[in-house]
Amino acid sequence: MDVQPLLIAGEWRAAPASCKRLRAVDPATGEAIGPDFPVSGEADVEAALASASAAADELAAAPPSRIAGFLDGYAQAIDDDAAALVALAHAETALPADTRLAKVELPRTSRQLRLAAQAVRDYAWTQPVIDTAADLRSHYAPLHKPVLVFGPNNFPFAFNAAAGSDFASAIAARNPVIAKAHPSHPATSQRLAELAHRALLQAGLPAASMQLLYQFDRRLGLELAGDARLGAIGFTGSRSGGLALKAAADQAGIPMYAELSSVNPVFLLPGALAERGAALAQEFFASCTMGSGQFCTNPGLVVVPEGDAGDAFVNAAIALFNAAPPGVLFSRGVRDQLEQAVTALRDWGAVCLAGGTSAGPGFRFRATLLQVGARAFLKHPLELQREAFGPASLLVRARDLDDMLAVTAGLEGNLTGTLYGATDGGDDEAMARLAQRLRPRVGRLIANRMPTGVAVSAAMNHGGPYPSTGHPGFTAVGMPAAIRRFAALHCYDNVADHLLPPELRDRNPGGVARQVDGQWRSDDLPPPSPAP
Question: From the candidates 259, 275, 412, 503, which is the catalytic residue?
Fold first, then answer.
């Protein structure tokens, strides 16, 4: 079987005949599917990096209208090719074709691209600031270097290295992208890259603005992450893999924006349980098992009060988890890691209440519920916060509010933290105290809803303190903030007007919103007063 080509230097290039190969696997059956894809060696990786670097200055100088035109054109191409893309992604991930891929994730992906296009058109991501008295002007600008993007396994569209938020953000900031596809969905990534490449050419942008590599070995990955020709790295994946790449990047001074792991703690207060415990059990179950639990915002740790209402919640959850069919996981590796995580949690004192074992055919795992007391949790908080990526969650039974507050103190950094309180206000004081403790430990604080959904909004923070991410000040979702990860802050001191970027000049014909002497305005600056 012929091996598929690579996108390098603006063209689809044949892979070496002697290269190692990979194939996608249908998670529902465990059988290999589709064509062979190349595992790249040093020559391919070097060619991709060199060609992306060579295109960086040209792309940085491209008019914003062309960048926005590409992002909009690519979004439309994805929408037009939806049926084929959904079929490929469904075959490679076993995610529901209609309810997940077609109706949720693919529209989210094209919307992200369009929002990035709008941020480019209105210069929102550049955040222009002008101090007229000091004649200082600053804005965010391209890195003039390529961005390396590692795509995860759990979002074949919305976080795909060739289409997702990191890709859109890096291109919006006018940086070339080296897209490292995830080996779980190579055909999906290839088709997205074909659409992107065509849209780049139609928009008049450098053909080498995007490179696509399917896979390379760990050594090459670490060497690439530490190559000073890179401007930044975007990564979504395992903590161990991300930290290894970050160590290599740190040695070369390359900023890496990594999403690593999160258990997304949920606190159920007594009034909420007494008021609607059965409904909360159903809501929790649906969130934990959605997509077979393969979300970075899965509710992996739920703090439940002891007592009758808490017991009723737990019993209702056990019944739901026991009745659920085994969820299909993305790969053998995901299944094996979930088995190891569940075993480790049990070794550290958690009791398995439901599930806990794999099943066939393919890579299936039973919905899993574990439990531990709050005092036992606090003896080994780090070990009992191990992320169990899949349809699994740990219940922590708390005797009172003091126990709940103590649990918050033992939490690592997370993407989200959720508080459920009674609608009559009976839990408000406890919620306020928990929120105060939880706030510095989570990127997004949620009230009365499960954390699974991540809205594509300018106000969204899909980030958080370490180890949920590598830096607490940035988000991977939401334009224009996500774009600034892949930008440099440029300052101009006493520079002539004609040498300034357009959004920092005195005249502002585009009506760009600028912070001038502490006030946001979009008009022209008055001419300087004549010298006395």
Answer: 259
